[in-house]
Structures are given as C-alpha cells and as structure tokens.
Design brief:
By secondary structure, this protein is mostly helical. The protein folds into two domains: 62 residues; 130 residues, no CATH class. Helix content is 72%, strand content 0%. It contains ten helices and no strands. It is globular, with a radius of gyration of 18 Å.
C-alpha cells in the first residue's frame, strides 16, 4: 500500500505544479533550461507512475474491500467508459469535440475514474481512481483561473478530426473491453464478477 501511496503523491505532486504554483514551472525552465526541466519532470513522473502501478498490483493480491457495488453498476460503468478513448483522442485532434468540452482529456479522466469507482470498491481502487477523479476536478476548476498555457502538440485542424477521434476511440474501447484490459490489467471487464 505504501508504494501505491508514494507513487500517487509523486505523480500528482508533479502534475499539480500548475495548479498550486502556476509560475514556478516557468521560473524553473528559465533557471535550468527547457530540455533539463522536461527530462527531470518526465523521469520523476515516470517513477511516480511505475510506483503507483507496482503498488496497485501488490495491493490487488490482498484487497481490502470498502464496499461491494450492486451488479448493475458494473454494466453502467461500461457505458461510462464509452466516451473515454474518443475524448482522449479529441485532446490531440482539434475539432468540435475539443471546442465543446474545452479539456477533453480531463473529461476522459473523470469518466474513467468514476466508472471504475462505481464498479470496484477496494481500498486500492478508491485511492487510485479517487485520486485521479479528485485531481481532474481540481485541475479543471483551476484552469478557469490560470493564464492560458501553450497547447500541447496537436494534429492540424481538419473537418474529419472528430470522426477520427470517435471511430478510433470506439475501436480502442472495444479492443480494451475484449482483449487489452485482461492482458494489461489482468481483469476481463466482461467476465463474471466472482
């Protein structure tokens, strides 16, 4: 459990710099240079991510059950997952989805985390998905009050970007549902619960 908690703290501390100290990043970039900042940030984020993945995997061996959701919520969570991959792709494919949601990646994180919290009630899951949900909500609120940063690299605007995001996103959803989730996470979402 400690590994999971340390991973979450490290990962979210780094991803929350713009929330709590919006100009600190710019000062660090000026001080150490952009390549050094990106390198250290990427390395530490990677370490945090690995720690939370390893910690989460370890806690699944002896889960502490906080609540047992009703069976129907499992199917509702599958519906909540439908927009996740299209929203993730829309973050990098400028179009109507991106314009309407403003921050499609944060919306995707909120759908993903909520779906998992509704379907699974162990302590590790509540820590992991609850942390992501809370962070996405706080980050979205803080974006309303922050100076607009330069956007991440994106594809060129196209009238087909929304179609691409939806079609590829839904294909990824089906692939995860029937194959990749079981391969990567060790849990088949459509398998009977017990």
């Amino acid at each position: 459990m400690l590994t999971l908690i340390v991973g979450l703290i490290l990962f979210f501390a780094l991803h929350s710099v713009a929330i709590v100290a919006p100009y600190w990043r710019e000062r660090m970039v000026l001080l150490v240079g952009d390549p050094m900042w990106k390198g250290v940030y990427g390395l530490l984020s990677g370490v945090g991510f690995v720690l939370l993945v390893v910690g989460y995997a370890h806690t699944r061996r002896a889960p502490v059950v906080l609540y047992v959701p009703p069976g129907w919520l499992r199917y509702f969570s599958l519906l909540l997952m439908l927009p996740v991959f299209p929203l993730l792709l829309a973050a990098y494919l400028p179009g109507a989805i991106q314009r309407r949601t403003k921050h499609p990646m944060l919306a995707a994180v909120k759908f993903w985390a909520t779906a998992h919290l509704l379907a699974i009630g162990t302590l590790a899951d509540v820590l992991l998905f609850g942390s992501f949900l809370l962070w996405a909500i706080i980050d979205r609120i803080s974006l309303k009050h922050r100076v607009k940063a330069s956007p991440p690299p994106r594809a060129a605007p196209s009238r087909y970007n929304d179609l691409i995001a939806v079609l590829i996103g839904l294909a990824l959803y089906v692939l995860f549902l029937f194959r990749l989730h079981a391969m990567l996470i060790g849990v088949a979402p459509l398998a009977p619960p017990f």
